[in-house]
Write a structure and sequence with these properties.
By secondary structure, the chain is an alpha+beta fold. It has two domains: 61 residues, no CATH class; 73 residues. Helix content is 66%, strand content 13%. The protein has a three-stranded antiparallel sheet, covered by helices on one side. Strand 2 and strand 3 form a beta hairpin. The relative contact order is 0.12. About 7% of the residues have low confidence.
């Protein structure tokens, strides 16, 4: 039972680390994209003056990125039209927190799934080549069992994370 406890602890720590690592990756996605565009700038709404060389305050050009509210400014009205489309489709590749966490979790689950299947196959090979030796048979069965447990944990983790993300976001 001690091994199972360590497996569960490792899973909890891994998903906690994923959540902590994904927060900075998702921060300031829209603002960075706006400020990389030559004719548009995003500025915190608390700033009273427009950015230099961006005189047009884009109507309806406010957005929230994380916990900060930004106003978009453009060089002309065409830039403001582009800003409006960028607010609805931020060209960030979907790098909001939800998408980043899902991508990381999907990658981890995919890798864990592959490792679990490989372990099950190796356990089967060990079992076939054990020639009835009780020690080798037990080792092979344990390998298969832990591979199946890993696969089940990966599938459950995937389901739980996706349920939580769809419920929260």
């Amino acid at each position: 039972m001690g091994k199972m406890k360590n497996i569960v602890r490792g899973g909890i720590l891994a998903f906690g680390a994923v959540a902590i690592m994904s927060v900075p990756a998702a921060a300031a996605c829209k603002q960075t994209n706006f400020n990389n565009h030559p004719d548009i700038r995003a500025q915190q709404t608390s700033t009273a003056t427009p950015p230099p060389n961006f005189p047009v305050k884009c109507a309806g050009g406010t957005f929230v990125d994380g916990t900060v509210t930004y106003q978009t400014w453009g060089r002309n009205s065409a830039a403001c039209s582009k800003a409006a489309s960028m607010i609805t489709d931020p060209e960030c590749g979907g790098n909001d927190l939800n998408t980043v966490i899902q991508a990381i979790v999907n990658t981890i689950v995919f890798v864990v799934g592959i490792v679990a299947v490989v372990m099950i196959i190796l356990g089967g090979i060990q079992y076939s080549t054990s020639q009835g030796d009780p020690g080798k048979v037990k080792k092979a069965k344990d390998t298969i069992l832990y591979g199946i447990i890993g696969l089940v944990v990966a599938i459950l983790a995937f389901a739980i994370v996706n349920f939580v993300l769809t419920s929260i976001f």
